[in-house]
Design brief:
Structural class: alpha+beta
Number of strands: 9
Largest sheet: 9 strands, mixed
Order of helices and strands: EHEEHEEEHEEHHE
CATH class of the largest domain: Alpha Beta
Number of helices: 5
Helix content: 10-25%
Strand content: 25-35%
Radius of gyration: 19 Å
Amino acid sequence: MPRYFLQLSFHGKKFHGWQIQDNAHSVQAEINNALKTLLSKDVETTGCGRTDTGVHASIFYLHFDAEGINDEKDFVYHLNCLLPFEISIQRMLKVDEKAHARYDATSRTYRYFIHRYKDPFLNDVSYYFPFPVDVQKMNEAAAILKVHTDFSCFSKSRTQVKTNICKIMSAGWTKKEDQLVFEITADRFLRNMVRAIVGTLLEVGEGHISLTDFTEVIENKKRSGAGASVPGHGLFLANVSYSYIS
């Protein structure tokens, strides 16, 4: 049966993350319902990963199998017509029948947005954090992430994963006027990992913990040693890379 990838984006405010859950509104449920309407049968979708409640995605991929799709652009148009404004399908790609949206991803990039001054127009997509921070120190701490691979200290407890090993390719902060943006790229991420990293880096920036302390937090592998997780509404899945998608 033909397999397709969908590239999409979504505003996460109204959703309890990507994955279908009992008694919770999810992005996957909306898409599955729309696909069922178009194809007149239940369709199983597989996403490139999970997102927490309130988290957004600039780029997200999923795959599904279906027959009888003759015009992919027309299919995307009608799918968008059925979906709420918070979800947008950008394109549809026919791929190899063994292609996998989750396991074939070679890297993922997240961005976390912080605004320093009160702005009602940013509240849904950026974290209001008015306290002074040392961005240079936060970047020095972010560089430490790249020399480690076990990030148990930043993982949500009691998750069903086989390993807490991740390879971080890049991580750092940029300052743009009154906004701070943290960007991190890795081969995989643990649940809650980026939000916990950002919260701990902010503690470095405020001078609550030193660079030595930050290293010890990672090496001790205990979630209790890291900082509090920042809110989900400032986090975006910004990119997902595949060897066969440009």
